[in-house]
Each structure stands twice: as structure tokens, then as C-alpha cells.
């Protein structure tokens, strides 16, 4: 029986909506009995991306209890010159704004729907009059759309369709389509991947109107005794800047973490490791004690500013010398105050209280300032000023001891603590340290991290010698073999002197090598506030890719594929939109690139090494990685990917191994290439037969289209065997197929050997051989894309180039699950399979 909500009298504004749908079949929301206006006075808007018989965008504005709706075939555009057709369709219920899902076949609008954008809108003038007159001007506050927009009716009375035009009004948000295509730049659901308001991410002189400053909310405070001890909250290193959520952003201070415990006016200054440093800084303790409080726990960092920038070396000099008056205590959190435990109070409220406390503090106590600007812009500014990076903290987060995801640290430079495991003498003479031998902990073991030999003066060199000489020991303290002959080949025998791992150094460096060593390191100072046991390897620099709106493309109009008109701008924007998906398949893998400087109809050439035109951002690996060969290249970042695309790279092909274990492949690939006369159904059948045989051998395989004529079957491996063994297995596997089903398969290369058959290419499993990577475009007419798919999708595939540069990203925006989600954790052994094939 239908619910009362389903009963919609035919006279209501939603009658047309109801008549078109069977709510026993479709998951779309049924209209309510009574339409309601927004309770909070804000009018919502939504843009839904709808792939029905063709892709289009449904633009909806809440008004008078319904969603006024237009179907926009090409979607919205920030370029005022672009007038987009908008067909006025039936009103929808307000609940429809949150609908995502699949409308079943044979239902009106059958196909997939996602919420592409959402937010609030403000009419300019009277909206009812605007609808009647056929001219509606409004301002949007969305996650992708902002600024002034206009809808203008262009149809005449009696026309079959009520046609309007949607376009952007000229304001600070307007920008040419050649510079920014919001449809291609941001194709995904904002429910699956929320972005937050664009006006907060990228303010352009105006911000969304707020209802006044928020009141400090202390409802989560708990009456409790002052904790005797409190472990500080720690930040997680961010691989990239967050693009959604509400974050408080501060500068990452280059100093020592310091907590303050105040009990009845008595102050203790406590380091991150729990050491009492009150005696070291009596003046700071006195200024904390002068704050208007009785009992408290405060969190902050001490630093010394040089030219307005925190300077770690200056802080060390101040601590060791007489310049302690230069030390500033930057406070950034308040966990307890006057009988109330505030740790469950939202961060913004804790900081608001803290700001009141330090308003009239002494000259050496300051509030750590937060900044109202997009993290990407702040990160760029911090890097330019020479700051270490940023701290990003969830605005509504509680205070949680230990390392958390609600506090992130974004590093503009590679820098971290290292355990000092040994040293060498400067010039071979005792008295001054020439270099420090470094280590870090991983999996409970102390591992070699290389060395640092710069960053100190003669006085520091003598001080380091004085500290390290009493710690000297006969053997290396590492728990993992350091491969002495390779690691210390540049030093004379016996020059290294090992030390008990009791001291910690702060080190800045250019990069990690494939073997886990620091490269181009520079000593910044000793960390007397951190224990060696807590030193672990952190990741690399935080990636802050340039926003798509700022992506500059040289010669964007150049046609890459004459058969479709795909331009260089289309190709570069495709790779920009696919970066987060393709990079895991590219990172740390040597590659070959297919470049097409004159388009795919012109001359193509492979590039494997750095001797040709340089591409900024790509990593060139030293020649000793692969002896007697030029340096290999890898694409490890968004910048590198887009740099290659800018240099007319169409295809990316990768090795079956990574630079870390170059001689040990971690996958085996079977390339199914149909010969002349082979229909697509035979290729699908061949893939299924390959999967079946692999399954009988105890191996799980993953499937992707090649982007060309065939399919790729990929088997992930544990990197234990060398290339010869893996290639021999793949050859035996293919020969077995060809011998068992000779009418279907060929194991021999050459067009004449594969007529009417599927050639399974095992040669791609040799040392230095490459295969088109997942999501790579192909330099063929139509520009197909190699797309990971599930085995359940095999029967529905139409060709190996089913998705192209023009359609692949749109297809992916509707996919809720990654068919290769388990690929990375499925390392398998070939041992049993090799035995079974013999």
C-alpha cells in the first residue's frame, strides 16, 4: 500500500513529476502531501549529473516548496560568452536534491544520477516575477559554482519545449572556457567527494554571508580534576592538502613543542616527551603564571624569530646561551581551564577561549595565528617565505592524545628527526665531526638512513664530537644489514665510527633514495626534546597541485587526434582530472612515454630516458640503478604528469617492477591482441579462458581494457623472483594455452601467425619491457583509454577502446566502487604455478 507521502493530489505543483514515475520501482523520492519551504530561510540549489539516453545536467533551484528544474545538456560554464541551453522541465520535490542512484530501465529518465554540485542560492529581485517574465537572476554559493548567474527564456508561446538559456554573469568568478572548464575539472559527486564551499576554498573578495560570529560552545566541557599528566596531540603528515572539510590553518613553527600545566598558580613547562623544563625558562613560566587563570593545561611551541620567521638554529643558540629573552611561546590550544576538561570541546571554541586568555599576555607569549585563506594559497606563501609548512586542524575536532588524522602537517620542505648512529672525523682527525651517520625506526627495527655532512660550523662540529665520543661503540647499531660495501664505498675503510643511538638530529634533505637513504641532507640541529625510539620515517613533501582553474596549457588549440578533433587542451585536462587514479600506477615505476608533437597522425616516438627534451618534475634515476644504461625516468607527482602531458606525451607505459626492486617484477601481464578476422566476442572469450587457467594455477587476476584492440590481464606478484623466471613462466603459460586450444590462441608474434586467433603477448614480461598503464590514453584514432574493469563487466564490454579521452572521466564519475580496490594487497607467489605448468 502506498504511504500518505506517496499520495499527491493532481492539483499540486508536483503532479507532472508524479505522473512520470512509478515509485514502486524507481528509488527517486516520492512527492510529499504538502510542500514545505526551507525551515532556515536559505534556499537550496542542486546540479545533478544524469547519464540517461545521453549525458546532461539537471539544474534545480528551491522555491515555494519545490525544486524548479531545467535540463542543461552541456552543463554550466563560468564563461559569460557561453550560453548553455536549459530546458525547463517539471518541478521536483525538495527531497530530490539529495538523490543519487540508478533509475531502473523502462522508467522515465532511466540511468545514473549523482549530485554534481549543491549549496544555496539568493534571488536578485523577486523570483516569482522573474519566472513569469522569463528572466531570473541569482547568486550561487556552491561547492563548484559561485557568483551571479542568469536564466533567460528564449522559447515563444506555443513552442513544444520551454527553452531557456543559462549563463554566467560578469563578476569576479567569471573566466574564459579556454582557461577553466568546471565540467571537466571537477567531474565527481560532491556527496562522494565533498569539496566545501568554493567561496571558502578560493575567495575572490567576497565570502558567503554568515549569521554573525559564532558563540563559544562549551557544552561538551566536563567538570573534572586537573589531570596530572597529559600526552600531546600529534599531527599526521599530509601527502596532499585537504580539498574538503572545515580546517583551521596555522604556520608550522620551527621550534620545540611545549605544554604548560598550571595548578593553583604554579606553572610547569613540559616537553613533548614529558620532561620538566620549567627551570630552563623561568621567565616564560612566570608569564604563563600571570595569565588570568587558576588551573589549566595549555599547548604550544617555543621558537625564536629571525626576520619574522621561526629559526630552529637560533632557538638552539638561545637555549644553550644567554639569549633566552628571544624565545617566544606560541600557544595554540587549551585542554583544561579552571575545573573544566575542554578536550571534547570543538577546537574553534577552545581557541576562542585561549585568545581571550592571552589578549593581555606578556611580551613572550602569543597566540599562534590562524589564517583565513585557501590552504593551497597559504601553502604557496609559506613555501615562498621559507617556512617549514602548515598545520591544518579540523575546526570541530576534540583534543586527542597521540597521532591523529584531525591534525595534519603539510611540509613544504623534506625535513624530519633522525637518530644519530655514528660519525666520522673531519679531515680524519679527532676533535670535530665531519659527518653524521643516520637512522630511523621502521617495523620496530633501526634502519640506515645515510649520512649528513653539512649544516654546522666549527663550534658545532666540536660540540657534536664532545657529545658523541662517549657514546662510541665497536659495531653498527642498525638492526638491518646496511650493505657496507655499497653504502660506504665513498669513504676510506674504517672511517665510520659507530655510536649508541641516543641522540636525535633534525635534518633537512632533498629526497629519499630508492634504498631509503636521505639525499642532499643538511643538519639543522639536535633535538633534545625527542627520544630516539620515537623517530620513524615520514613521507615526502606535501603535494599542493595547482588548481585546475590555474592550469596553463601551451598551444591548447593544437589538434592531437584529427579523427575526433581532440585537442591538446582536452588531453592535458584529461590527465589533470585523472591524476589521483593514474599516479598509483605510475609512481616509482620506470616508464616509456609515447610522444606526439605533431599529433597522433604525425611521427610518434618513445622516450625512456632523460637525454631528450627535459620535462620538469620527472624524476631521473642515477645510471647505477641499471648499469650501462642512461638514467631511467619516473612520474611520481601531479606536476610531473602534467609536465609530460604539456610536452605532448600521449601514452604512459611502465615496467613490471619499481625502482626500489628493479630486478624483481611485482606483476605479470598477458596482453590479449586479436589477429585479423577475430571478432570482439572471441577476445572476451579468450580473457575468460586466461582467467580460468590462472585460477586453476592458484592465481587471481585483474582485468583492464588496453585502450586499443584488446584486453590486459594482470597478475600481481610478491617481488621475489627475477625477470627471467617470471618471463619463463609467462611463456610456458601462453604456450600451454596455444597447445591446448590452438584454434583460439597463438603464442607466436607476427601478423601471419595470429590470423583468426588471439595472440597472448608474454614478451612484455621481460626486463625493461613496458605496458600501457591503467588510465593511459592511446595514440590511436579515437584516443581510447586503458580502463580497469571488473570481471563481471567483461560481457558488457563493446571493445578494448570502449572509453576514450572524451568519455572516460565522465564514466568514472558515476562509479561507486573501484574494481581494482584489492589489487594492491594481492601480492602472490608463482612457485606453485610454475610447478603445475611443468
From TrEMBL:
Cofactor(s) listed: Mn(2+)
Region (Disordered): 1-35, 530-552
RNA-binding among keywords: no
Protein name: DNA ligase (ATP)
Domain of life of the organism encoding this protein: Bacteria
InterPro entries assigned: DNA_ligase_ATP-dep_C (IPR012309), DNA_ligase_ATP-dep_cent (IPR012310), LigD_ligase_dom (IPR014146), LigD_PE_domain (IPR014144), LigD_pol_dom (IPR014145), NA-bd_OB-fold (IPR012340), NHEJ_ligase_prk (IPR014143), NHEJ_LigD (IPR052171)
Gene3D superfamilies xrefs: 3.30.1490.70, DNA ligase/mRNA capping enzyme, DNA primase, PRIM domain, Nucleic acid-binding proteins
EC number annotated for this UniProt entry: 6.5.1.1
ATP-dependent DNA ligase family profile domain span: 320-442
Source species: Paraburkholderia hiiakae
Pfam families tied to this protein: DNA_ligase_A_C, DNA_ligase_A_M, LigD_N, LigD_Prim-Pol
Annotated catalysed reactions: ATP + (deoxyribonucleotide)n-3'-hydroxyl + 5'-phospho-(deoxyribonucleotide)m = (deoxyribonucleotide)n+m + AMP + diphosphate
Name of the gene: ligD_1
Keywords per UniProt: ATP-binding, DNA damage, DNA recombination, DNA repair, DNA-binding, DNA-directed DNA polymerase, Exonuclease, Hydrolase, Ligase, Manganese, Metal-binding, Multifunctional enzyme, Nuclease, Nucleotide-binding, Nucleotidyltransferase, Transferase
Amino acid at each position: 500500500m502506498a504511504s500518505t507521502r506517496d499520495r499527491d493530489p493532481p492539483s499540486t505543483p508536483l503532479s507532472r513529476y508524479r505522473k512520470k514515475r512509478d515509485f514502486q520501482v524507481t528509488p527517486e523520492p516520492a512527492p510529499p502531501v504538502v510542500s514545505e519551504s526551507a525551515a532556515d530561510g536559505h534556499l537550496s540549489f542542486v546540479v545533478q549529473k544524469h547519464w540517461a539516453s545521453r549525458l546532461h545536467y539537471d539544474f534545480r533551484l528551491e522555491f515555494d516548496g519545490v525544486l524548479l528544474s531545467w535540463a542543461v545538456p552541456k552543463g554550466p560554464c563560468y564563461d559569460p560568452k557561453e550560453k548553455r541551453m536549459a530546458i525547463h522541465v517539471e518541478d521536483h520535490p525538495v527531497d530530490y536534491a539529495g538523490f543519487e542512484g540508478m533509475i531502473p530501465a523502462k522508467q522515465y529518465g532511466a540511468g545514473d544520477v549523482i549530485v554534481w554540485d549543491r549549496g544555496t542560492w539568493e534571488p536578485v529581485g523577486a523570483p516569482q516575477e522573474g519566472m513569469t517574465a522569463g528572466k531570473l537572476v541569482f547568486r550561487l554559493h556552491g561547492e563548484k559554482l559561485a557568483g551571479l548567474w542568469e536564466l533567460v527564456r528564449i522559447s515563444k508561446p506555443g513552442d513544444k519545449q520551454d527553452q531557456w538559456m543559462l549563463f554566467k554573469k560578469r563578476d569576479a568568478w567569471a573566466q574564459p572556457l579556454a582557461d577553466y572548464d568546471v565540467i571537466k575539472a571537477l567531474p565527481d559527486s560532491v556527496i562522494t567527494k565533498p569539496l566545501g564551499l568554493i567561496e571558502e576554498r578560493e575567495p575572490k573578495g567576497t565570502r558567503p554571508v554568515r549569521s554573525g560570529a559564532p558563540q563559544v560552545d562549551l557544552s561538551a566541557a566536563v567538570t573534572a580534576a586537573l589531570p596530572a599528566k597529559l600526552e600531546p596531540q600529534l599531527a599526521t603528515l599530509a601527502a596532499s592538502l585537504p580539498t574538503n572539510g572545515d580546517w583551521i590553518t596555522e604556520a608550522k613553527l620551527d621550534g620545540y613543542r611545549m605544554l604548560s600545566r598550571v595548578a593553583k598558580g604554579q606553572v610547569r613547562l613540559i616537553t613533548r616527551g614529558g620532561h620538566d623544563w620549567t627551570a630552563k625558562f623561568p621567565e616564560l613560566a612566570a608569564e604563563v603564571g600571570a595569565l588570568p587563570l587558576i588551573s589549566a593545561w595549555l599547548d604550544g611551541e617555543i621558537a625564536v624569530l629571525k626576520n619574522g620567521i621561526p629559526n630552529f638554529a637560533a632557538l638552539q643558540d638561545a637555549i644553550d646561551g644567554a639569549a633566552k629573552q628571544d624565545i617566544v611561546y606560541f600557544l595554540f590550544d587549551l585542554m583544561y581551564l579552571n575545573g573544566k576538561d575542554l578536550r571534547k570541546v570543538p577546537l574553534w571554541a577552545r581557541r576562542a577561549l585561549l585568545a581571550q586568555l592571552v589578549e593581555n599576555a606578556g611580551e613572550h607569549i602569543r597566540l599562534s595565528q590562524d589564517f583565513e585563506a585557501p590552504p593551497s594559497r597559504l601553502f604557496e606563501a609559506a613555501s615562498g617565505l621559507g617556512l617549514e609548512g602548515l598545520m591544518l586542524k579540523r575546526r570541530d575536532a576534540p583534543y586527542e592524545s597521540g597521532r591523529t588524522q584531525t591534525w595534519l602537517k603539510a611540509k613544504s620542505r623534506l625535513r624530519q628527526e633522525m637518530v644519530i648512529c655514528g660519525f666520522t672525523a673531519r679531515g680524519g682527525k679527532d676533535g670535530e665531526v665531519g659527518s653524521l651517520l643516520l637512522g630511523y625506526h621502521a617495523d620496530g627495527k633501526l634502519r640506515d638512513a645515510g649520512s649528513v655532512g653539512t649544516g654546522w660550523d666549527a663550534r658545532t662540529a666540536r660540540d657534536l664530537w664532545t657529545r658523541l665520543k662517549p657514546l662510541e661503540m665497536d659495531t653498527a647499531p642498525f638492526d638491518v644489514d646496511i650493505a657496507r660495501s655499497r653504502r660506504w664505498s665513498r669513504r676510506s675503510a674504517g672511517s665510520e665510527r659507530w655510536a649508541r643511538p641516543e641522540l636525535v638530529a633534525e635534518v633537512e634533505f632533498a629526497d629519499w633514495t630508492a634504498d631509503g637513504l636521505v639525499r642532499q641532507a643538511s643538519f639543522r640541529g639536535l633535538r633534545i626534546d625527542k627520544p630516539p625510539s620515537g623517530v620513524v620515517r615520514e613521507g615526502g613533501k606535501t603535494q599542493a597541485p595547482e588548481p585546475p582553474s590555474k592550469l596553463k596549457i601551451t598551444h591548447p588549440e593544437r589538434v592531437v587526434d584529427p579523427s575526433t578533433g581532440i585537442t591538446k587542451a582536452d588531453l592535458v585536462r584529461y590527465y589533470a582530472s585523472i591524476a589521483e587514479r593514474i599516479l598509483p600506477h605510475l609512481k616509482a615505476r620506470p616508464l616509456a612515454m609515447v610522444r606526439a608533437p605533431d599529433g597522433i597522425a604525425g611521427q610518434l616516438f618513445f622516450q625512456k630516458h632523460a637525454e631528450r627534451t627535459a620535462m620538469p618534475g620527472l624524476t631521473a634515476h642515477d645510471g647505477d640503478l641499471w648499469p650501462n644504461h642512461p638514467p631511467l625516468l619516473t612520474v611520481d607527482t601531479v606536476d610531473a604528469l602534467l609536465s609530460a602531458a604539456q610536452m605532448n606525451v600521449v601514452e604512459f607505459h611502465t615496467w613490471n617492477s619499481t625502482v626500489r626492486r628493479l630486478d624483481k617484477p611485482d606483476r605479470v601481464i598477458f596482453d590479449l591482441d586479436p589477429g585479423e578476422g577475430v571478432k570482439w566476442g572471441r577476445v572476451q572469450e579468450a580473457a575468460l579462458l586466461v582467467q580460468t587457467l590462472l585460477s586453476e594455477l592458484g592465481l587471481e587476476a585483474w582485468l583492464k581494457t588496453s585502450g586499443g584492440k584488446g584486453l590486459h590481464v594482470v597478475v600481481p606478484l610478491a617481488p621475489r623472483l627475477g625477470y627471467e623466471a617470471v618471463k619463463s613462466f609467462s611463456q610456458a603459460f601462453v604456450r600451454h594455452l596455444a597447445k591446448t586450444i590452438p584454434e583460439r590462441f597463438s603464442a607466436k608474434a607476427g601478423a601471419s601467425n595470429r590470423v583468426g586467433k588471439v595472440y597472448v603477448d608474454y614478451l612484455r614480461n621481460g626486463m625493461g619491457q613496458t605496458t600501457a598503464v591503467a588510465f593511459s590514453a592511446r595514440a590511436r584514432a579515437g584516443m581510447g583509454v586503458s580502463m580497469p574493469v571488473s570481471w563481471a563487466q567483461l560481457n558488457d564490454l563493446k571493445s578494448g577502446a570502449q572509453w576514450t579521452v572524451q568519455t572516460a572521466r565522465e564514466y568514472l564519475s558515476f562509479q561507486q566502487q573501484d574494481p581494482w580496490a584489492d589489487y594492491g594487497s594481492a601480492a602472490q607467489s608463482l612457485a606453485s604455478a610454475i610447478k603445475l605448468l611443468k
